[in-house]
Amino acid sequence: MDKNAIDSRSAGRRNEKMVLALLEKHGPISQSRICQLTRLGSSTVSTIVSRLREKDLIQEHPLPSGKRGAKPVLIRINPLGCYIIGVEINPNTIRLGLFDFHCELIEQIAIPLGNDHSFDPVMGLLEINLRGLVSKKMIPPEKILGIGITLSGSVTPAGLVELSSPLGWKMVPLKQRLMETFNWPIELHSNKVRLLAEIRSQPALQSKNIFYFNIADGVGSTLLIDGRLIHGATRRIGELGHMTVIPNGPLCGCGHRGCLEALISGPAILQKINADLADGRQTILRRWMDQQTKPEQSLEFLRQAVEQRDRYALSVLDFIMEHLCRAASIAVNLFDPDVLILAGYVSQPFFSYLAEQIRNDFADHVYDWHSRKIEILPSRAGKEALIRGVAQAVLQNALTSA
Fold first, then answer.
1. What's the CA gap between 212 and 379, in Å, rounded?
2. Per-residue pLDDT tens digits for 237-257
3. Which residue in 33, 246, 326, 345 has a CA-CA distance of 20 to 30 Å to 80?
4. Separation of alpha carbons 300 and 118, rounded Å
5. Where in the chain are the domains?
6. Which H or E run includes 291?
């Protein structure tokens, strides 16, 4: 086969992706503006636009003009030209989101998980519901741009879940299993992609240095430095939840003892409350909680008890605050952010109180604190942050890969 022909096709695909990326970034623009931004000739851009039109990936809108001759035309991405599916797997739920080509959420479903988090039952639920979502919306298979899966844990670029302590998974070939089942591009990401959703909801954050601190079923963090997500040599940067806080403390899902995650994650807080109730601790939480209470429910009950100034609930909040403050100060000393975002169902109900206490702790434990200006912000991406973030990652990769 002619190598020049192969190179020509590769260049054509790269140019198509470049134009789509411009349309995604700038919104509707004219063909002449595309020429300016890409520095490609008008005939080349015309060919690219023609191919994208044939693939139904763009829409063209003539603008009103009082002049004779051809009317100016704005080109934009066709939101229904293709679709992305974002998937979050956590110990309580599989959440699926169907997104259009603009990464706007069309529909989402949440599938509750029982106590069995083993690989095969979870995969069975995921496969059935993925097919059901695509079938329900009558989406042609060729219009699926890709499926992005995100979970808490260490994942390799090849799609192997090396360790997910909240799920109890080790060395799980998640991507391989899905590729055997679906004829669509599959991407596997850690939950660091949630920061992409945060930036989409607050675009001004793109220019910031951000430490994103999430406390939910696990405890982890994400770094955005100079506009780039930081991953580390083995893609494990930000595992603050596995910092040893109490030597020989509670057993963590990672196999070590005394980790921050084993102390202030949602499941850890629920375990602490249940143990204290069993020891006879007096609190109004006793009225609401039973053996069926889930971690996220327990934090809602804790919030209500704190609002009623329940002494035990206040002590639990102070326990969370003490460990969270120390971890936040360590993170600031290490990474020097100008924005700290608190996320997750453990911290968000108490954001104002925790933010104030963190600022107070900074004054005592952050190096040269008075010369820094650090904003402490709540997460605003909502419960869909992970599916939104992983869909955004799939779109970015599709438009930037060679």
1. 9
2. 888 999 999 999 999 988 999
3. 33
4. 27
5. 3-77, 83-196+385-400, 203-378
6. none
